Amino acid sequence: MAGSVKGDGTEEFKGLRITSLDDDSDEEEEQKEPDVAMDDDDEEEEDEEARNSVILGFVKKPKKSRSLLRHFFPSKAGGVPAWLDPENLPSGRSCCCDICGEPLQFVLQVYAPEEKESAFHRTLFVFMCTSMACLRRDQHEQWKCQRDEPSRSVKVFRCQLPHDNPFYSSEPPKKDSTEDPLMAGAALCNWCGTWKGSKRCTGCRKTLYCSEKHWVKHSRSGHEHDCQRLRIQLADSSSANSETTSAVVLKGKYKVVFSWEEFWVGNLTALSRLVASNNLWPEYKIIQEPESSYDTEMPDESVGTNSLISSNRMDDGLMSIADNFTGDGDRKSWASFHVRIALAPEQILRYCRSFGAKPLWPVSSGRPSTADIPKCSYCSGPMCFEFQIMPQLLFYFNVKNDVDSLDWATIAVYTCEASCDASVVYKEEFAWVQLS
To answer: pTM for the whole thing?
Structure first.
């Protein structure tokens, strides 16, 4: 990609616009079949003003992992979420795939504050089930949003905080700061590191899990042995005096003394995090660039060779998807989509929040009409398009190109137009999945 990926700091996705939604009136009859396309007006080229308002997101390995901690308000993909409110996390059914019941995996988050006091800090979090079977089912379930309670495998949460809040300083964070967040936040699951650890291991009573499923997975991955060892060690330490129950560790020229319980629990926690890290997608920082800058700047292969793939390789991967399309409408739509993103093929996200915004749809079939987008479940107000996730992200997540591997054409995220201030800290928004 060109050396035009300029922004490397924590910038705001803010006040951005893309193009209008379909011009259908609210009286338009609701679509009943998933394969009904939107009006032909959607095929018209976007005007120059709209194009200039699109912000592209690219992934980059951070120079320092600390830059992705929550008090730096990062936009990031993969790894674990940097929860904005670290205490009042989503729980229960919200954390799991409604289809298979597995806890959802973190995809990405976008820091996108609004010009209102209650949303001075505002972050959107996207999670999904890693099962392609669930994603296929999800694509059908999303059409039920206006009529029934759908079973979803892709979920989006919005969290926002005022300027004065108990979690963050009123002063902007310093880039090179080594300070930790003001508050530690809720204890997280030792397996996934994502959701709140609401269940405790019945053996060691030390490790926490978000669900029984993750307790089982952790046990099968080695915790059962470590748990037994910890129980024996704790039993021995409780019957001995403090002089014989201390572990002495030399650290440089200093002698650090731990109780056996602290020693084993500390190492067990480290082991748990290591196990979890092997089951998460690679972690990246999301950096931003206006799409308009690519109208005259063509991609350059010399930048980001460690984290970005070549345009030719990306083009080959994208064009191979076209083999799956049989209808002329889908082929035409895909050709238009490919031409648009070819200037910046490594983009993993397209952001634009404005009145009348719409995604850049890869295919003509399976697109929602205005009537298919539900109202905000908290204030009953309209929802608007805010950003879409591109299939290129799968490459950076090292997802294999197998028959049953996770895949999508795009995931469009719609949020409450008013960014309402409901009492729920993490408000569930709406995602529309379009498969290739």
So the answer is: 0.78
State pLDDT tens for residues 289-346: 999 888 755 444 433 333 334 444 445 555 555 555 555 677 788 888 888 899 899 9
23 assigned to some structural domain: no
Token output for 76:
């990031």
The Cα–Cα gap between 33 and 57 comes to: 32
Q: Which amino acid is at 299?
A: P
Q: Which tokens go with 410?
A: 């795009």
Among 277, 301, 324, the domain boundary falls at: 277
**Residue 22 placed within a domain:** no
Whether residue 241 is contained in a domain is answered as yes
The alpha carbons of the chain give a radius of gyration, in whole angstroms, of 23
**How many H-runs (helices) and E-runs (strands) does the chain carry?**
8, 15
- Among candidate residues 277, 307, 342, the one where a domain is terminated: 277
**Domain residue limits at 172:** 40-184+286-434
Q: How many Å apart are CA 195 and CA 103, to the nearest integer?
A: 8
The burial of 353, by beta-carbon neighbours within 10 Å (0-12 exposed, 13-18 middle, 19 or more buried), is given as buried
Number of domains in the chain: 2
Give the integer Cα–Cα distance in Å for 254 and 249.
Answer: 9
Give domain status of residue 27, yes or no: no
- When pLDDT is cut at 50, 70 and 90, the band that residue 276 belongs to is low
Nearest to 182 by CA among 286, 87, 68: 87
- What is the distance of C-alpha 234 from the center of its chain? 39
Q: Are residues 90 and 155 in the same domain?
A: yes
- Do 84 and 205 lie in a common domain? no
Query: What percentage of the chain has pLDDT greater than the value 90?
Result: 48
